[in-house]
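User: Hey, my collaborator sent me this sequence without any context and asked if I could get a structure. I don't really work with proteins. Can you help?
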Amino acid sequence: MSFLISRRTFTAGAALMIAGAKSAFAQGQKFFRIGTGGTSGTYYPIGGLIANSISSTGPNGVPGLVSTAVSSNGSVANINAITGGASESGFTQSDVAYWAHSGTGLYEGKGKVEDLRLIATLYPETLHIVARADAGIKSVADLKGKRVSIDEPGSGTIVDARLVLAAYGLSENDIHPEYLKPGPSGEKMRDNSLDAYFFVGGFPAGAIVELAATTGITLVPVSGPEADKLLEEQKFFSKNTVPAETYKGVGETETIAVAAQWVTSAKQPDDLVYEITKSLWSEGTRTALDAGHAKGKSIVLENATTSLGIPLHPGAERFYKESGILK
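Assistant: No problem. I've predicted the 3D structure and written it out in structure-token form, which is a compact way to encode the shape of the chain:
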């Protein structure tokens, strides 16, 4: 009998605890999804590290916050999810964020995403122009008359490629354009049916590492007065350098980059975004990023407000002013 009473008492107590927990969960928990990219890319693992760190269970997490990294098709899909209310935040390239907010580039004729706001710039995504070593391409101007892939229509890379070509006085009419992703582009370079291709992404990029191991390649610099003018006109670009031997046999190369950025909606509460930004730049998150991914060390507070193609969220702006990053 005593066993049955004890068991019933325990069961009743557990039920009360569960009911209380559900009530507290419903009242106090806040959800903050982070749209990332494919599971094999960089966005997804970085998103996971950040989500775990800023959640209430993280070392310097936001009380009551439950954050998750959600796999997606990348920049445009993440912005669409934020706009449609399917996600509270997401990662995007700085150029895509700028185009969305201004209704230009990929968003030409589609209307402006005026509520898009920046939480933080994370790390650089480098513009690569990969060329066959024997193709005689030493500068962007040398692409004239060559067989060049500028990526698929609808991609961020193709818009960036057109901007770079135009900066050096070229257009698609001056090259023999192909519209391929890096994998197929590499295959065509191996069989000598393509001279060069554009790619935007963090280095070292796996597809280029593989190509360099089997085929002599160079990286074409994006530098000089043409690049300086482009940087002045397009604020989402920044200077970047690919270190020597990042790819087998390739020396140090000056180029430009867009930034991987964490964005949200202006509709998100200021206090919440402030606390999330504060947690992002906490000691606990720093430790997780440094240990968790090769790109983690590139995510530093000093760069958080660079490549500002869209407005900062007021909550994030408040933190950056308090921390001295913004005046």
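In plain terms: Confidence is low (pLDDT under 50) at residues 1-27. You can pass these tokens on to your collaborator as they are.
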